[in-house]
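Table S5 (text form). Sequence records supplied for joint modeling of the three-component complex.
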Amino acid sequence: MGAVIVLLIVLTALFGPFLVPRDPLKMFSGKRLQAPSQEFLLGTDQFGRDQLSRLVYGTKASVLISFGAVGLAVVLGILVGLVSGYYGGRIDNLIMRCLDVVFAFPLLLLALVIVAILGPSLKNLILTIGLIYAATFARIVRASVLSLRKKEFVESAKSMGAGNASIIFHFILPNILSPVIVQATFNLSTAIMIEAALSFLGLGTQPPDPAWGVMLNESRSFMEVMPWLAIFPGAAIMLAVLGFNLLGDGLRDALDPRLTSS
Amino acid sequence: MENLEILKVEDLTVHFHSHEGVVRAVNGVGFSVRPGEILGIVGESGCGKSTVALSILRLLAMPPGRIVRGRASFQGKDLLSMTEDDLEEYRGNRISMIFQDPLTSLNPVLTVGLQVGEVFEYHKKLEQWAIRQRTVEMLKQVGIPSPKERIREYPHQFSGGMRQRIMVAMAMACEPDLLIADEPTTALDVTIQAQVLTLMRRLCRRLGTAVILITHDMGVVARMCDHVSVMYAGHIVEYAEIEAIFKTPYHPYTQGLLRCIPRGKSQEKLIFIEGQPPRLTVEMKGCAFAERCSLRDPRCTEESPTMREVSQGHLVRCFRYEL
Amino acid sequence: MENLIEVRSLKKSFLLPGKRKLQAVDGLDFSIRRGETLGLVGESGCGKSTTGRLLLRLLEPTEGSVEFEGMDIFKLRSGDLRRIRPKMQIIFQDPYSSLSPRMTVGKVLEFPLRIRGINSKERNRRVAELLEMVQINPTYANRYPHAFSGGELQRIGIARAMALNPSFIVCDEPVSSLDVSIQSQILNLLKDLQSRMGLTYLFISHNLLVTQYMSDRIAVLYLGRILEIAPCASISAAPMHPYTQILTSAIPVPDPKIERAKREFHLEGEVASAIDPPSGCHFHPRCTQRKEMCFQKSPFAKEVEKEHWVACHLFD
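The corresponding structure-token record, covering 901 residues in total, follows.
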């Protein structure tokens, strides 16, 4: 179920821009603040811009940022977690202290600060969210590695003369992927929310580029009279978050090796 | 004729509902226990012996478990059909149970004194000072050193063997008529196992408590039991006095089981039983052991044999003994 | 060479939080002859698993040496060590956790061959050969561990240990997690392989009866020390150390006559801890025959009969 929703979203992000009826930035001065109609399926905003097109374009931003950030986080997190967990000792201590610093701050606050310093842009947004999430993954991976390191199949590999690289690649890595993947899908959904929140605050995607958070922000002044300006982007955010969460739940069950049939 | 048994189980059938289907864990099991005797129920993992034990006191999780049919008459009353409230009178009082893992069967956040005392409080309705006195006495009886001081300690401060003794104390506190012990020493070291078994036997003999001892270890059976029931795939396949089971086992499974236990002689090769126990999700036609039985007939896979008395007090469920 | 393995003064301690020391192995001296099975028996905490792993250098010792074919394995450099590793392998107790759940059985067996640089065609042939050796259908090679039963998994574990043609295998409680009827299958398989391939075993177990079935000689371990070591028949017929006597009488034997004849069990006390072991002879707190000296001095092992060594002041 979740997979279906996510698939839809990704497809929209990829192909939407080619299918929309109108340029999301174009302002139709004569048609401002119109309710959903046949001409403008989701209505127009205060500048006369087609909401549907904006919504679709906004998908791209959300998808890009969430996948980009999480992708970065996974790669970085696995690397750091592996090194920390497998080699232990002083390196592990050092890394864990750094991670503790990251965890000490509330996520959104940290993101705000970093983006405020670096300046809002797509790249910076991905970098920020990605780095912060990397800490979570690193901790998860490290915990898995610590328990896997002591397992008997690792001892067996050592008794055969396998090198560390070989052991990590064949025995440790395959066994940590499952919790990482599940966590990643959940992080995808929160990444979307963070992007929306930052855009809402003006620190994310800058207007006039369409993004769901931006659209929400802009709708604030008109909400009482023209509720659809807020409803549609809000619903989009909810749907995306829901989709990723469902996907995560489903994946968690599917990846349990005991349930896969041979 | 007077009814001598204190517990009589008849046609006990228990199913579990899992996502793989219905697991027929226990099928038409029947046995009886006389006052003061030690009955062993022996079998390998998955044969249903633990399920039988839990069913008698209705301690099974239902769902997914379900007692499909059967009677468990304890001194004339059927335990399986009485109300929960009535059953509470029996549990811990007239019938007690001890479990395999001493680590998880004791509450880690309550002192040992409180846990043993709880039994007295609930069933005997004594004053606090009397409870404490009886608790200390009970701990002394099971061999816990310095019981007055130790009643204030928590389970994790005791070793595995000690914890199991505390369980015995809790179980025997109200001097029950029947004790159900589910693999009580399996998790213990051999020398500790011997201590705990000796304790159980001594205490039960002295108080006249009957025991149902569940185990997979034929050696434990030989040490402790008066009678034995052998279980396989949810059925009882043989029942006899202790000497008879070891000297003249009739059922091919019992014979196989006894032949494949190493007794320390390095020369003889163990003769093992081919194959594996059956999956209990399939409705079996014929004898459950037929598939692995080297002595099987065509009849064995078609019909199910019934339990018959082959010699004095010795029952077998096998076509080879049906005349 | 007569002795495949020579162990001298082997010690291993672990540091626990709070600066406490766990003396798991406390001065072991023994040897294992080529082709024999030495049984190592003891209760929990006696150090038998640690010993097994030390012999394979899966752990580093605190003191002492282990000679394999005349070479001290702890002094070998990584290149040399890597060369002899295939000759010494291990089989574990829990079949369910000793295989990686994400590797097919075929890949599990292939792995040792791959890291030795054996080519793909030869690897496939060998994997099929190994599976047949342990009586598992070779077409099951692409199944995952969760599809197999405990007994089958244990056989796969044995196949894995055999993959590199070892001469010595440490069997760490290989049947303790299995049902009795499956145990005998595995024990017989191990015996078969031993006679066919000329293997040497260190058979670790807490079950004396099983150990007696498998071993030529038996060493009794208690709190990291060997209390008695003797041919299998002597250990059962004439155990000399008080602990061995207790152990042999404590084990329930499937024979009611023997069991009834045993006197009421006389061993007091709990198994002591390796963190703060008793002084002198480690067993003295529980020994009914202890003397003054037992508190103070550790007894040395003495050859009391041919091939029968006991570490006890009663035999001084």
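Note: The longest strand of chain C covers residues 3-16.
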